[in-house]
Amino acid sequence: MSDYLPDECLTEVLVRVPVKSLMRFRCVAKTWHSLISSPAFIATHLNHARHKASHGERSKLQDQIILFRHYSACEYADEDDHGYRTWITSDEEECFALHKDDESFPHSPTLNLKPPHNMWSGQYFPIVGLMNGIVCLVDWSRCIFWNPSLNTTMETSFRTGAGTFFRPVMHIFGLGCDPITNDLKLVRLAYLKKNVVPPVVEIFTLVTKSWREVAAPGPMYILVQSKSSPQAFVSGAFHWVAHTPPGQGSSSNVIVAFDMENEVFYEIALPSCLSSKPHLNMTVVLLNGSLVLVPDNEVYGDSYYSNSVWIMKEYGVVESWTKLFDIDIGEQGVRRVITFRNNGELLLNSDGKELLSYEPYTRETRDLHFKVRPSDGTSYETGSYFVDTHMESLVLLNEAHRPRLVGRIS
What we know:
By secondary structure, the protein is mostly beta strands. It has helices spanning 7-14, 19-25, 30-37, 39-54, 272-275, and strands at residues 65-71, 74-79, 85-89, 94-100, 111-113, 127-131, 134-138, 142-147, 152-157, 170-177, 184-191, 200-205, 210-213, 222-224, 233-234, 237-243, 253-259, 264-269, 282-287, 290-295, 308-312, 321-326, 334-340, 346-350, 354-359, 364-372, 386-389, 405-408.
């Protein structure tokens, strides 16, 4: 039948087909295999998926799928039909799973996934972000791009400071997409000495599969990055909270952005009441496409942090910064805001390592009955939490196949 359909019509049909089915359809005919595997079709399929997500073409928000990662032995509550609760402790491991963003989260995954890498020294890979269906994980020497829908990965080593005996004192990452070419880009800022700016800036593009140094000068700030928060990529740029290096005059805080198309840095001012706060324990995330400042008490080891949440209602307009609310969970301290949920609640990690969902306007806190059990001598449990919206894509289709699915939950 496909012999009688023009390629344009066939493409219009197939871009609406889920990835799993497309993998089977490649066996229908050589022409179908060639079409589905082509870069042009992969880009068209991705654009269609992004259009659906951005225009809310889902029947219900609860149908949206999220990727959830946590590490270490966790305790969760299991209730029977009579409401009797039993606490169960899982084995110590790194866990990835897909969930519906509804009342079943985080106890009823729709699909369990194996990590796309081998663990080493009991450490987990920080997640830079999730974009175009690709998860980006990093350690001190390498980066892994992983497509959970296809179970394919691509690994690359860093250029600067990747050797065993030399590495930067800190490196910061940003994951974004060139709005013109749709090419996925990873920017890396390597601080070679403590509190010395500017850092070396390098960029990796998925199309070229290679690193190169960015020509534009690096920022004269120390950038901070939450351990595993969803990416703050909007208006074609990645965003970080940043501060002046210690010992260089009065403290100053800004948002530093990196334009993925033009590959240049620029600054966005913070609300005036936050711009000169020392040890500003905040990070930047997204809410409905707007920049939002949220508390992050893991950024610094300092006792001071803000519990307020601010939104920039009009991108780049400093006067549009508006305080949304304060987070009040009683005697429990806020360790980290993980993300905003589809129902408007915040997913929080408390000082007691509990996973909480917080309704900001009623100030009601729901215990999700899921917490990290402390491991001997470790401090990375809470930072391993990562939650972000998952979207199927064919990106990395032509990479080596690696079977990573554990199994669908019945």
